[in-house]
């Protein structure tokens, strides 16, 4: 649905050049909720502005719905832009217009028939749960309600893609959750592909199926949310993942273990539906190993569970080696940990 090939963007200001994007390659498929995460200055907003063609790349190629943006004439560019809706951190509503008029604005600008506008806006306000706010003004709404209006307005011209630029960053956690639920509904019920940028991994965890991590204009890691959360490779990705997946050994437990270091410590990592009981059953009955669980954590990502166990094991060394091979064969990663 959206493809970026070797896309670079360099800004020149007062003899200073900033390489905001450096040969970015990205493929966003139809139906994805694709999250781009990175710290401030990583290049996320630049990426979104290029996809929306508010700015042009310095080099490289962007295609949206199979069309090369650089090759489109102004008319076709306007047409493709209608396929892209956008919502913003600060909502960008017109304060002097009612909620109905705000949502209707893209349709009024496109000179849509009044009856069609009436029906479409009424349907959208009901969809975002604001049917009773049509005559209100933005100043009478909460942040979460304003973002709902932003979403309804973005959907007015029936886009195929929705770009979300830090759409929940100004909202409290509970409101964030309700807006993310609404975005998921937009994706599922209207089949709209979503490209979302954020600096919060919890947002990616809750609704995205794919993620790209950006740093200093580069994409340093990308993949399915489950694989990136389960096996982050780059230190920056690990830092982001640790904000939601609490799989590191807590400090207090480390301190206790340091004082009593007779036994080796092992970390077991797994993604999926293994249950603790079955694994410990095998370790005990098949390999005659006595297991003490020191710490465990489970995190739900989409429909999967990431699980980590820190264990100490008593038994024959030979049996341990056989047990670890058995676990690895069953997609359980085993690592000896030094504290
Ligand atoms: N119009 C511009 N002129 C000059 N430099 C710019 C411009 N827009 C962005 N930059 C620079 O490009 C780099 C990437 O900025 P960008 O806004 O894309 O990052 P970001 O990841 O979205 O960060 P934030 O979350 O803080 O917005 C930064 O160094 C920024 O200063």
UniProtKB/TrEMBL annotation:
InterPro entries hit by this protein: AAA+_ATPase, ABC_transporter-like_ATP-bd, ABC_transporter-like_CS, ACT-like_dom_sf, MetN_ABC, MetN_ABC_transporter-like, NIL_domain, P-loop_NTPase
Pfam families per record: ABC_tran, NIL
GO CC terms in record: plasma membrane
Family of the protein in this entry: Belongs to the ABC transporter superfamily.
Domain ABC transporter: 2-241
GO biological process: amino acid transport
Descriptive protein name: D-methionine transport system ATP-binding protein
UniProt keyword annotations, A-Z: Amino-acid transport, ATP-binding, Cell membrane, Membrane, Nucleotide-binding, Translocase, Transport
Organism: Paraliobacillus ryukyuensis
One annotated GO molecular function: ATP hydrolysis activity
Superkingdom, taxonomy of origin: Bacteria
């Amino acid at each position: 649905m959206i493809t970026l090939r070797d896309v670079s963007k360099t800004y020149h200001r007062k003899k200073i050049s900033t390489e905001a994007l450096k040969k970015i390659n990205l493929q966003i498929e139809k139906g994805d909720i694709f999250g781009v995460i990175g710290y401030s200055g990583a290049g996320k907003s630049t990426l979104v502005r290029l996809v929306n063609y508010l700015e042009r790349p310095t080099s490289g190629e962007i295609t949206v719905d199979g069309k090369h943006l650089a090759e489109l004439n102004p008319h076709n560019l306007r047409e493709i832009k209608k396929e892209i809706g956008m919502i913003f951190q600060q909502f960008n509503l017109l304060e002097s217009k009612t909620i109905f008029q705000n949502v209707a604005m893209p349709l009024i600008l496109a000179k849509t028939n009044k009856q069609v506008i009436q029906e479409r806006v009424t349907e959208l306000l009901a969809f975002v749960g604001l049917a009773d706010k049509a005559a209100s003004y933005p100043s009478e709404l909460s942040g979460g309600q304003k973002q709902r209006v932003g979403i309804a307005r973005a959907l007015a011209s029936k886009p195929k893609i929705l770009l979300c630029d830090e759409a929940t960053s100004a909202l409290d956690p509970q409101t964030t959750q309700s807006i993310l639920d609404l975005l998921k509904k937009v994706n599922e019920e209207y089949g709209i592909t979503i490209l979302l940028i954020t600096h919060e991994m919890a947002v990616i965890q809750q609704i995205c199926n794919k993620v790209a991590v950006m740093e200093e204009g580069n994409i340093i890691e990308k993949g399915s949310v489950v694989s990136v959360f389960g096996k982050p490779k780059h230190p920056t990705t690990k830092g982001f993942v640790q904000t939601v997946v609490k799989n590191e050994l807590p400090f207090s437990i480390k301190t206790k273990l340091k004082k009593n270091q007779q036994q080796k410590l092992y970390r077991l990592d797994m993604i999926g539906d293994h249950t603790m009981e079955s694994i410990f059953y095998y370790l005990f009955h098949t390999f005659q190993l006595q297991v003490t669980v020191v710490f465990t954590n489970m995190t739900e990502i989409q429909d999967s569970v990431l699980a980590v166990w820190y264990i100490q094991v008593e038994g024959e060394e030979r049996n341990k080696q056989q047990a670890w091979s058995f676990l690895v064969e069953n997609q359980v990663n085993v690592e000896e940990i030094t504290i």
